[in-house]
Amino acid sequence: MKVFSKRTWVLFGVIAAVAALASVGAYAYWTTSGSGTGSAATGTSQNVTVSQLGTISGLVPGGPAGAIDYRINNPASYNQYVASVSVVVDPLWSAQADASKPACTAADFTISGSPDSVAADLATGDHDYQPSGMSIALDNEATNQDNCKSVNVPLLFSANAS
Predict the structure, then answer these.
(1) Is there a contact between 110 and 136 (Cβ–Cβ < 8 Å)?
(2) pLDDT for 77-124, tens place per residue?
(3) Dihedral over alpha carbons 127, 128, 134, 140 (to 10 degrees)
(4) Which residues contact 49 (CB under 8 A, 6 or more apart)?
(5) CA angle 143, 147, 152 (to 5 degrees)
(6) CB atoms within 10 A of CB 88
(7) pTM confidence score
(8) Measuring CA to CA, how many Å separate 58 from each of 36, 87, 105, 143?
(9) pLDDT digits (tens, 9 = 90+) for 12-65
(10) Which are the contacts of 38, defined by CB distance < 8 A and separation ≥ 6?
């Protein structure tokens, strides 16, 4: 019968200790559960701008209407929905070069086709509506309209989301 040396017994002891620690480590854990919170923030819309494309000239009482074409610019880095665009002659505007005659006012003009349906989810950038379907005409009134000669008629655009 062979007797192991002291060195061999130490080696067996070290191996047994490592095995014992490994087996304990494999089974030594705690169970737990938990919860937490977080948040996410949303952005907001940015106003689009609407501008007239081209010029309208040569309006005369009872004459043909001029097309009102426009551009919508979406400055946001994301799509935004526009349902329609409306245009009116500035209701506060008037022109009266000759005080002896009636002033030219928004009431002297008719805008047709407003609001114009856009109904689009617009990407970033410019979107042209030409033809738009909107037009402006100088009405043929029963009064003197000389103050409507050679005037620039201010148009006000508004984009609507619904």
Answers:
(1) yes
(2) 999 999 999 999 999 999 999 999 999 999 999 999 999 999 999 999
(3) 130
(4) 72, 73, 75
(5) 130
(6) 15
(7) 0.76
(8) 69, 19, 17, 20
(9) 777 877 666 666 555 567 889 999 999 999 989 899 999 999 999 999 999 999
(10) none
